[in-house]
DNA sequence: TTGAAAGCGCTAACAG
DNA sequence: CTGTTAGCGCTTTCAA
């Protein structure tokens, strides 16, 4: 284990000053002869500039942070793959953290990133606007993916979420301003949910339920909007993020409202729970209950019956978010809304 | 965006030297009075020590690197969650990379980590011993997870793999030495595969196939050993890692050997491919073909029929690996072999 | 075009 | 117990 060559070693071996080496290696001006010599020596010494020195000097770490709720959720796996693909092609390191959907863990992780001087972050947020404002004020460039943080004041949480959606859709709203002025890459949840609800309606379903998770206020609201008033709030339930809680929510829903004939699951973990709960209660899909799941994951096709899904481009979402956070050269990039697609397989049938 | 307080700011505000602040904050000796004052000032200034300065000074980055083949493979998602859980409780950052199972990308990512002075690494290796030796020589503390790198010399790849397994099992072998002297956390593939094969044999199956992926030499060899000589090599096939190639391999297998009655898939992506291919060819599971899949993933239960699996503790594997790489205080930690469990569900039936 | 020199924020000797 | 000081490896003025 011999120690690595430093810029000083290269400078001495090449008979030039360290500044010259630095310039040559970062594409600065230098005479052809000098450049050639430095490059040769550097290669010969197998010199690799240390990110440590550079980072300290520039008071910032290259690369980016990446915060997701759960890596065993296939959708977030896809999202991460997208981020990593972009980062790799840029040669940038990615510091990852899994929040478990818990604002506290999220805050801890943010603290860790701050300590590391990571000043670019892609996050699927769990905390609300109050937890994120300080981060932005600290000078971090953040891009949200998949969803946005909730407005913190308990009062108009709903109003803000709606306003937010409208803003993303390019509609003007007389509602409160968006909670945070941060670019985001999200799927067009509104259209996705609307399409699913219309599809189910077309099949004759009247009592359609929504099975949501934490941080899915957008989708819940989109659902409320899609079914139209009056909304049967008993048909709108949420788990807390874990597989167990998702199962409990699904099971509770099926038992308390045996009259429902269709359910829209807000994510693949929730869809999984719905299938399990239905089976446990001897409800046949789609005979007794129709199911549409958010997220297209490989196993949706293996299910019995294969699941009809609202597909959203997880990988693209990650890639785009990484692009945004990387290209954030001063100018604040605009948010991106990605299309969803209803993929009809076998989990929905006519209402009977 | 105001700049962060530095140790110097704290020192001045507290009327002490920077060294004292450093000591207090890292638990060194200091008088109660001084300690209290420094702590108060630090809190008041919201001081967070910069990892940049510390890292440069210590010529190493804290935290660890994590290299996996594919984050959309649920098993690796589980493994990562384990690593992250351990890292989080230690307050250490994790730099992640997805290799796509490609040795070249792996090498690139290793280079990136070296540049960042990340000197601890947990890896599910894709490259062979030749690509890993330099990494070790560079002074990195590495712990392999899930599998070990292959011996590079084409000749005795198989022998080495076998020797390796035996070494892990604590057996002495007259075969070539283990390729690399690196601690690893792996599942007891040998026992897992053996159990699965015996189970299938007990069901009356004679022609059992193995559907492997890249880097699964251990499992392939365990399979060969479990079925015993003579091995029908046509029944041992491998994909290259992508879902497409896994599907092609599975499909090819079913078509070329319609006489097979059971298949063991070496991982969940391969299992998925097997289910898909079987369905496409109108082979019913388990009527026409029985299937045992490596990895217990949530969706295994949702499959029709629910999949019988060889479960391995992905999360534990990651957690243990992180512990090893963190605790690697000079002493080289011993490898860990985690148990597997055959979980019988509905994808295996009697041979007919 | 080039080199010397000044730090970036921190820790670790070494004195006091 | 505490302060001073010397760098860690690099980039970046500032002169030459």
TrEMBL record, chains A, B:
It comes from the Bacteria. CDD domains: HTH_LacI. Pfam families: LacI (PF00356), Peripla_BP_3 (PF13377). InterPro entries: HTH_LacI, LacI/GalR-like_sensor, Lambda_DNA-bd_dom_sf, Peripla_BP_I. Keywords: DNA-binding, Repressor, Transcription, Transcription regulation. Residues 5-58 form the HTH lacI-type domain. SUPFAM superfamilies: lambda repressor-like DNA-binding domains (SSF47413), Periplasmic binding protein-like I (SSF53822). GO terms for molecular function: DNA-binding transcription factor activity; transcription cis-regulatory region binding. This is LacI family transcriptional regulator. It comes from Nonomuraea jabiensis.
């Amino acid at each position: 284990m011999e120690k690595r060559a430093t810029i000083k070693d290269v400078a001495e071996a090449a008979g030039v000053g360290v500044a010259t080496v630095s310039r040559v290696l970062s594409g600065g001006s230098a005479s052809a002869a000098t450049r050639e010599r430095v490059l040769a020596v550097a290669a010969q010494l197998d010199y690799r500039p240390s990110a440590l020195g550079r980072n300290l000097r520039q008071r910032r770490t290259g690369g980016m942070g990446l915060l997701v709720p759960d890596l065993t959720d296939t959708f977030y796996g896809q999202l991460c793959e997208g981020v990593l693909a972009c980062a790799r092609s840029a040669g940038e390191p990615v510091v990852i953290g899994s929040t478990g959907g818990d604002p506290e863990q999220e805050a801890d992780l943010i603290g860790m990133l701050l300590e590391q001087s990571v000043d670019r972050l892609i996050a699927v947020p769990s905390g609300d606007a109050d937890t994120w404002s300080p981060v932005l004020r600290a000078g971090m460039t953040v891009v949200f993916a998949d969803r946005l943080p909730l407005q913190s004041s308990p009062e108009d949480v709903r109003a803000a979420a709606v306003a937010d959606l409208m803003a993303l859709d390019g509609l003007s709203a007389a509602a409160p301003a968006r909670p945070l002025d941060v670019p985001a890459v999200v799927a067009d949840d509104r259209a996705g949910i609307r399409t699913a609800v219309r599809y189910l309606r077309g099949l004759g379903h009247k009592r359609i339920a929504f099975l949501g998770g934490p941080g899915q206020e957008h989708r819940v609201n989109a659902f409320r909007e899609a079914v139209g008033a009056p909304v049967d709030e008993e048909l709108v339930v949420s788990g807390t993020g874990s597989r167990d809680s998702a199962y409990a929510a699904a099971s509770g829903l099926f038992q308390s409202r045996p009259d429902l004939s269709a359910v829209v699951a807000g994510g693949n973990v929730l869809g999984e729970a719905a299938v399990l709960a239905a089976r446990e209660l001897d409800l046949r899909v789609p005979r007794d209950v129709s199911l549409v799941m958010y997220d297209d994951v490989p196993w949706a096709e293996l299910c019995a019956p294969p699941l009809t899904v609202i597909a959203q481009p997880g990988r693209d979402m990650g890639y785009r978010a990484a692009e945004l956070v990387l290209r954030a050269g001063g100018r604040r990039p605009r948010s991106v809304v990605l299309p969803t697609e209803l993929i009809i397989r076998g989990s929905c049938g006519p209402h009977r």
